[in-house]
Amino acid sequence: MARAAAPAANRMSVSYSIWQNATVAQSAESATCREPRAAGAPAGHASDWLGALRSAFLGLQCKSTVLVVGLLSVVTAVLCGLTIELAWRLSARLEAKAALQEAKIVAKFAAGYVGRGASAGMLEGLAELTTGDPLWFVYVTDAEGHVLASADRTGGAVRPGMDARIPLTRLTGQPVVERMPNGGRVLVDVTYPIVVPCRDGDDGAAGTSAVAGYVRLGMNPERTIAEFDASADLVIGIGIAVVLASIPVGFMVVRRIVEPLNEMSEVAHRFSAGDLTARTQVRRSDEIGLLSSSLNEMADEIARKQGEVTALNSVLEQRVIERTEQLRELASRDPLTGLYNRRHFGEVLARRFAESRRYGNDLSVMMIDLDDFKSANDTFGHQTGDEVLVQAALTISRQLRSADVAARFGGDEFVVLLPQSDASQARQLATRITDRFAEELALRLPDMAGVVSLSIGVAGLVETDAATDEALLRTADDALYQAKAMGKNRVALAGTALQ
């Protein structure tokens, strides 16, 4: 239960400390900001006016209004563009349909004259057709494209008998919008076949139809274009009016949202400055009203917890000290075996070596290595290898005194510090550890019995006369290699001093 309460108390203490620091900083800032205004009234008024102006333009209300108006402008522009585009396509389609219908009428009119080979009456009819506003020119040709009769509002009509041909590139009845080269006028140009019935003696069978010629006409769509331009101007005007009307409307809508937020910001500023009685007035029942209520509830809770936090500070400090000691102990341990790690062993060895040198006490070190551990680890798996390491650590620890220090030196190596023990005593302990390890393996890990063993190198301070703790450790390491050279599962004692 105490462990469960500690994190909550820690978070409470940190929150209170942050609130206290923010209160002090903001109080100092408020005092600093008030001093220049008291020193000079005119400068203060000017800075206040500029600050208010800057806040107005950089505030949430102005930014939100600009965003709403900008978004509405984009939507309006897109809708206006789509409306104009659809209107233009519809107008073009209707104009093309009217031109095709007119071409069909002229082709039907000219069929009677072309079939009889008469063109005089056809000229008069074509002239009447081009006197109206829609048609700009009409050409009637034979099947090879030779002009039989024409009427043109520009005065350039081709008369019968003239050796002239017009290109018949559009024979499918598909209208084409193009400009005339002599004035840049926009015309709807369409070519339509003249079909006459076949008579006896013709190439075709009686009762069938054949193409006797073509009608090509150009229709003036300027009236339709003018009507379209007027409609487009109307649509654009409506869009501009909508955008202009959205500015005050958007401002009022945003103001209704931002005004309570400004009030909550002011209350939060007063509360952070140390006024724990500051509260907002809840006037709405929507999300903003819920936010105001939540802010008031939070302020009440903070004020209530302030006393509790103060009482818990002393308890928390003691728990932090205890937890620090626990973390320090965990940081010095090997996570697999539970023994001390190499860094901690080095610190203890340095202290004990200095004490032994100062008081003339003996000191011994054992370097321990698992024989053939790598091959066994590869053969039986890493899980089994970890169990062997743990068993070795347990065997070593159970043979030591409370003053002795054992550590995992790295990989499959261990090291033991034996204060106030000479080399002979350390050698006896090393032999006991190797024998006990073999018994434990046979009992607990029978598959590893005879496969893995321990080799130990022993070095005593008096016997080696090592100058430093590192030199003593190297001497024990050299003795370990001597033990391995003797056939493994051996104990070797270093008997010469390092220079």
CATH architecture of one domain: 2-Layer Sandwich
**Order of secondary-structure elements:** HHHHEEEEEHHHEHHEEHEHHE
What is the chains' assembly state?
A: single chain
> Which outline best applies?
elongated
Unreliably modeled segments = 1-41, 156-164
| Relative helix content | 55-70%
Helices and strands in order:
Blueprint: H1 2-39, H2 41-58, H3 60-116, H4 120-130, E1 135-142, E2 147-152, E3 176-179, E4 186-197, E5 209-219, H5 222-272, H6 287-331, H7 342-359, E6 363-371, H8 373-380, H9 382-398, E7 405-410, E8 413-419, H10 423-444, E9 453-460, H11 461-464, H12 469-485, E10 491-493
Parallel strand pairs: 9-10
Antiparallel strand pairs: 1-2, 1-5, 3-4, 4-5, 6-8, 6-9, 7-8
Helix pairs in contact: 1-2, 1-6, 3-4, 3-5, 5-6, 8-9, 9-10
Brief overview:
The chain is an alpha+beta fold and 499 residues long. It has twelve helices and ten strands. Helix 8 crosses helix 9.
Explain this structure to me?
There is one protein chain. α1 packs across α2 (41-58), α3 (60-116) runs antiparallel to α4 (120-130) and α9 packs across α10 (423-444). The protein is built from twelve helices and ten strands. By secondary structure, it is α+β, with helices and mostly antiparallel strands. The chain has a five-stranded antiparallel β-sheet, covered by helices on one side. A five-stranded mixed β-sheet has the order 7-8-6-9-10, sandwiched between helices. Among the domains are: 109-224, PAS domain (Beta-Lactamase, 2-Layer Sandwich), CATH 3.30.450.20; 342-493, Alpha-Beta Plaits, CATH 3.30.70.270.
